Amino acid sequence: MTFWQTVDHRLRLLFWLMCAGTIVLALLPSSNSPGLFALADKAAHAVAFLVLTAIGLRAYPRHTMILLLLLVGLGGAIEVAQGYTSTRSQEWEDFIADLIGIALALVARRFIALKA
């Protein structure tokens, strides 16, 4: 079994807790404080979805396509939901950053699999 094929139910719990935490953090009122650099918000989106995808791929190694569709849907749903809050804004650039994070996790998985 490779690194990506081992399943631990604690990883599944962690994945779902992280999904819930991502939703909560995305909908909490924004501080509107300037980031460390111009695209800090986009980098945070990409890193969050990179980590979610990496853990999800490890937790559900046989359900890659379903997982990817779920995460793409989650990213889109968060942006739509932010449009209905008074303190957040709907930015499709954030959704693109989510997709970049997902893609980076897939590239990393492929790279690790080639090295194994």
User: Measured on Cα atoms, how large is the radius of gyration?
Assistant: 15 Å
The H/E string reads HHHH
Total helix count? 4
Low-pLDDT stretches: none
Mass-distribution shape: globular
The count of domains is: 1
N-to-C CA distance: 11 Å
Relative strand content: under 5%
Averaged pLDDT: 89
Please provide a written account of the structure.
The protein is mostly helical and 116 residues long. It has one domain (3-28, 40-115). 71% of the residues lie in helices and 0% in strands. The chain contains 4 helices and no strands. The protein is globular. The protein starts with 8 loop residues before the first helix and ends with a helix. The mean pLDDT is 89.
In short:
By secondary structure, the protein is mainly α.
Secondary-structure blueprint of this entry?
Elements: H1 9-27, H2 40-59, H3 64-82, H4 92-115
Helix pairs in contact: 1-2, 1-3, 2-3, 2-4, 3-4
Key attributes of the depicted protein:
116 residues, mainly alpha, 4 helices, globular
